[in-house]
């Protein structure tokens, strides 16, 4: 997977993409794309959550992680609170700081969820791409872009 920085007007977005090309594919080929979210009555865990948790793991600070992800600090907290509310347990352990700032650590449960998310996304993406190509061929449609 890789992190893509996208500029749309005055806003900055980050997009996690998985390179699905092999030697016979060209970037212009049409392919399937899967979005995966964990949810109850509303979604609470997706690629933005994973991206934020990975950054928290790297830098140990929620504010810096939010900046690195292109999220406002309040959006980062909303993501974490919504996720923990949906799950019923903590995915980030926070320690308030003083002058030196606070510290944040991804919990074991948070790490396991990231692993599950990534593996499930990869497996479903691989299957969807394979099945997409089969269905396109079965129906006489090309996956070659113009």
Assembly level: single chain
Helix content: 40-55%
* Strand-residue proportion: 15-25%
Largest sheet: 2 strands, antiparallel
Estimated radius of gyration: 18 Å
Weakly predicted, low-confidence segments: 1-24
Shape: elongated
* Class per helix and strand makeup: alpha+beta
User: Based on DSSP secondary structure assignment, what is the total number of beta strands?
Assistant: 6
Note the topology:
Elements: E1 2-8, E2 11-17, E3 38-39, E4 43-45, H1 47-59, H2 62-69, H3 73-87, E5 92-98, E6 101-106, H4 108-138
Helix pairs in contact: 1-2, 1-4, 2-3
Briefly summarize what is shown.
It is built from four helices and six strands. It has helices at 47-59, 62-69, 73-87, 108-138, and strands spanning 2-8, 11-17, 38-39, 43-45, 92-98, 101-106.
Explained architecture:
By secondary structure, this protein is an alpha+beta fold. The chain is 46% helix and 22% strand. The chain contains four helices and six strands.
Attribute tags:
146 residues, 22% strand, disordered N terminus, two-stranded antiparallel sheet, two-stranded antiparallel ribbon, 6 strands, 4 helices, alpha+beta, Arc Repressor Mutant, subunit A
């Amino acid at each position: 997977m890789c992190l893509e920085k996208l500029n749309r007007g005055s806003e900055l977005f980050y997009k996690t993409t998985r390179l699905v090309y092999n030697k016979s594919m060209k970037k212009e080929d049409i392919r399937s794309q899967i979005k995966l979210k964990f949810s109850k009555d509303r979604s609470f865990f997706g690629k933005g959550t994973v991206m934020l948790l990975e950054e928290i793991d790297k830098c140990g600070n929620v504010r810096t992680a939010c900046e690195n992800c292109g999220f406002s600090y309040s959006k980062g907290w909303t993501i974490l609170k919504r996720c923990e509310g949906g799950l019923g347990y903590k995915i980030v352990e926070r320690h308030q700081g003083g002058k030196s700032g606070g510290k944040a650590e991804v919990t074991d449960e948070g790490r396991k969820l990231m692993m599950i998310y990534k593996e499930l996304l990869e497996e479903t993406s691989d299957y969807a791409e394979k099945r997409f190509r089969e269905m396109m061929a079965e129906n006489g449609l090309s996956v070659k872009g113009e």
